[in-house]
Amino acid sequence: MIKKIGELTFNNGVLDLHYGRKSLNVSEEVMNSIVERMLKADKKLRLINGNLMTDVHLDNICHEINGLLQEKSLLSLSELANSYDIPLAMLKEIILNRIPRIINAKMHADSIYTHMYVRRQTAIIRAKIRARSTPLLLNTLLTVIISYLQITQNKFRMKKLTNPFCIQFWMSLRIPDK
After folding, report:
1. Which of 73, 98, 100, 163 is least buried, going by the fewest C-beta atoms within 10 A?
2. For residue 55, what are the contacts with CB-CB under 8 A and spacing of at least 6?
3. How many angstroms separate the CA atoms of 155 and 35, rounded?
4. How many CA atoms lie within 13 A of 86 on its CB side?
5. Burial code of 34-54, b = ≥16 C-beta within 10 A, e = fewer?
6. Residue spans per domain, the chain
7. Are 17 and 50 in contact (CB under 8 A)?
8. Among 143, 58, 146, which residue's Cα sits nearest to residue 102?
9. Which letter does DSSP use for residue 11 in this model?
10. pLDDT of residue 56
């Protein structure tokens, strides 16, 4: 009976046990006992959601995930589990076993991300911290505002700065008399 199951064609490394049971015309109990013996005999087979999968198929899934990671840099494991119809815990185990070998990424909690993603996020955080901690000179600020107002004046062909915002701004810059 195991030879007959072995003769059934694995579709890209996957065998649907329901289809296999109907093809061989055996009961579910017989099929389950045969599958258990096959899983014990061959460590490259896995039973996932009623499908018998080979390691080659799981490697192909990981190659696809690696390709998606190169495009998006960050992927959610729960979304991947839904798209590949694999339980989340099983997908985590599959990916963890293949991270250094097939998938060039890091995994944390419910997401996997590339090293480039980490570098980009670090650069963004550094830029934000630097922008907040670098002092801004009042002269620089006034020069930027004045050039903006001149551009605005030229754009609308105004002869005077009569914009209420401009008047309020200039009034707020007045230094009170002592």
Report:
1. 100
2. 44, 45, 46
3. 78
4. 22
5. bbeebeeeeeebbbbeebbbb
6. 1-134, 138-173
7. yes
8. 58
9. B
10. 82
